[in-house]
Structure formats: structure tokens, C-alpha cells
Amino acid sequence: MKLLVINGPNLNLLGLREPEIYGSRDYAALCGFIQDKAAEIGAEAEVFQSNHEGAIVDKIQRAYGVFQGIVINPAAYTHTSIAILDALKAVGIPAVEVHLSDVSLREPFRQVSYAGMACIKTYMGLGFEGYAKAMDYLKDYLAAE
Ligand code: DQA
After folding, report:
1. Rg of the chain on CA atoms, in Å
2. DSSP-derived secondary structure letter, 104
3. How far is the CA of 145 from the centre of ligand 1 (A)?
């Protein structure tokens, strides 16, 4: 099972960035956490981060026929990007949405998730653990398919 984990803008600044919201662990720690989880469930994971919407769209398009599942934290593009929503729908790869913070308790502009409309499940407010839950969910979902 090959999983693609996509992280959107500013997540590369984890640790530095608003630690009271996103925690004090850095992006390298998140990548390590994801790889440890992949090893635990017997999956192969590629972790991709970009600050650019088009690069994320390109990555989703190239995932077709290569990855069986996608975990995506589109970060701020969650709330703006119909292009990422359309790319997820176009490739039809089962995708799970993750947010480190609980966006449902935050500003009104964070209350819409376009990408989430193409996802089979969302985890929010669980920090790094949300990625682990998303990977477990995809493993079970793909096994049942
Ligand atoms: C985020 C929440 C988004 O609203 C925000 O723009 C981010 C990170 C999260 O992981 O909690 O950059 O996706």
C-alpha cells in the first residue's frame, strides 16, 4: 500500500509557526512521525509539502495509478482551493483530510473546506495523531474495498 501525504503552505514552518496553535514540534518531526506510522502499518509513505497551489494540484494528478490513498492537510488552501478539490475528484484516489488544529473552533473563514468535499473522512484538532488516524483509516478502507 502506497500512501501520499500532502502538506500545504506554511506547514514547513511547524515549530516556529504559532506554537500555541500548532505545537512546538517541527516539520522534520512530523515527517518522522508519518514514516514511523507507515512502518507500523506496513505501508509505504511519501511525504510532500508545498507552499504553491499548482504544485499540489500537479502532485495529486501524478498520484493517479501510483498511490492507493492520499492524506492531505491543504492548510490555508483548504478554505480557498477549488483546484485542489477538483484534482482530488479527478483522480478518484481515496483521500482523508487532516488538520492539526480544530478548525471548527476557529475563525469563520476557516469553516468551509473545499478539499474536504472530496475526502472520505476528516480528522482535526488531534495534532500529529490526526495523520496516524488518517493512515489507519485508509488502511482499513482499502482492505475492505
Ligand atoms: C491547518 C488549519 C488551516 O486553517 C490553516 O490555514 C493551516 C493549518 C491545520 O493543520 O490546523 O495552515 O490546516
Report:
1. 14
2. G
3. 30
Whose cell is 476528516? That residue is 122
Mutate to test the pocket of ligand 1, among 18, 103, 119 (most ligand atoms within 8 A of CB): 103
What does DSSP assign to residue 127?
T
Interior/surface letters 103-131, b for 16+ CB within 10 angstroms, e for the rest: beeeeeebeebbbbebbebbbbebbbebb
Cell of 116: 474536504
The residue whose CA has the least distance to atom 13 of ligand 1 is 75
The pLDDT tens digits of the residues spanning 4-55 come to 999 999 999 999 999 999 999 999 999 999 999 999 999 999 999 999 999 9
Return the residue whose CA atom lies nearest to atom 9 of ligand 1. 99
Cα distances from 96 to residues 25, 108, 137, 139, 143, in angstroms, run 22, 22, 8, 11, 15
User: Whole-model pTM above 0.90?
Assistant: yes
C-alpha cell read off for 12: 514547513
Q: Is the CB of 78 under 6 A from ligand 1?
A: yes
With the most atoms of ligand 1 within 8 angstroms of its CB, the residue from 33, 78, 128, 133 to mutate is: 78
